[in-house]
Amino acid sequence: MQVARLPDANRRSSYDRPVPTHDQPAAGHRDDDTDRSALADALAAVGDRWTLLLIAALLDGPRRFGELQEEVQGIAPNVLTQRLRQLERNALVVAQPYSERPPRFVYELSTAGRELAGVLRLLAGWGARNAEGAAAPRHTVCGTPMEARWWCPTCDRAVSDDEGEDLHFA
What we know:
The chain is an alpha+beta fold. The protein has one domain (20-159): Arc Repressor Mutant, subunit A (Orthogonal Bundle). 32% of the residues lie in helices and 12% in strands. It contains six helices and five strands. The protein has helices at 38-46, 51-58, 65-71, 77-89, 111-114, 117-130; strands at residues 63-64, 93-99, 104-109, 150-152, 157-159. It has a three-stranded antiparallel sheet with strand order 1-3-2. Strands 4-5 form a two-stranded antiparallel sheet. The termini are far apart. The relative contact order is 0.10.
């Protein structure tokens, strides 16, 4: 007679690695302010395969779980649940209940989540420039491909590339 062996609860598989959140450093990072960068913090919050696609889907307005699953094709239900919970913990998404039994929610972006719209536009533009057959974001009025520029609100003008050479992201 063969006895089925249960997995060792103390042993972690590679799938059980903790996902860093905004209050938790990524693996390999020390927990002091000198080692943390704004880019590392942003990637800890939204830097996995599905999260930015979910945020993009929510930019058009609130969505229910099934609607998100249809819009972000290929995402497994368990992964969708994990990512929505992580986005909620990171205060990028707000879940509003619309049914108590069974518990069901409608998800919408918080103010901080909506701030990612510009980042998504930049990534989409980069993808369009570097992927064969992808279309660049265009101005709806004239149809011209759009360009992103750094803007200084104090000087009230665009900053040229040579003026922004002291920018550090990591």
